[in-house]
Write a structure and sequence with these properties.
By secondary structure, the chain is of the alpha+beta class. The chain has helices spanning 3-19, 72-78, 94-108, 110-114, 117-129; strands at residues 24-33, 36-45, 48-54, 58-65, 68-71. Helix content is 40%, strand content 27%. 24% of the residues are buried.
């Protein structure tokens, strides 16, 4: 399968979760680049966007409102769910990454899906201002 088809299969898996909160998917670009063939798009609702890209597997997953963005890993860390999150997980089947992401979104993403834009921007700002751990402390999931 090509990246567009892989992304389409993943979107089918995420659609029930995202559509229930008023999001719809928009394919934005794709083609060949120095890293290979890719496809990308976003689930959109108002100013909220869940951006996804696929090359050989699901890659960047970012939550965005205007110029405020946070990666999926950062979002899970901001929620204190870093150790519980399933995405990205490890599998040689590309659809598994979407299954892991769907699980995380269903369990942990209420603030993004149903909260106000201001509430989510506050969460992003709070996370970005928080001092980052380094060394062995960064290995902790707490």
């Amino acid at each position: 399968m090509n990246p567009r088809e892989e992304l389409e299969n993943g979107i089918k898996l995420l659609n029930p979760i995202m559509e229930a909160s008023g999001f719809h998917f928009v394919f934005e670009s794709g083609g060949n680049s120095s890293g290979g063939i890719f496809s990308q798009g976003a689930f959109v609702s108002g100013r909220k966007r869940l951006e996804l890209s696929f090359r050989y597997s699901l890659g960047c997953v970012e939550y965005r409102i205007d110029n405020n963005e946070i990666s999926h890993a950062e979002y899970m860390e901001a929620l204190g769910k870093k150790g519980e999150a399933k995405y990205p997980g490890f599998s040689n089947k590309p659809i598994m990454a979407f299954e892991h992401l769907a699980s995380d979104i269903s369990k942990f993403s209420e603030t993004f899906l149903k909260g106000s834009e201001e509430e989510f921007i506050t969460l992003i700002d709070s996370y970005k201002r928080k001092p980052k751990k380094s060394g062995f402390a960064a290995l902790s999931s707490k």
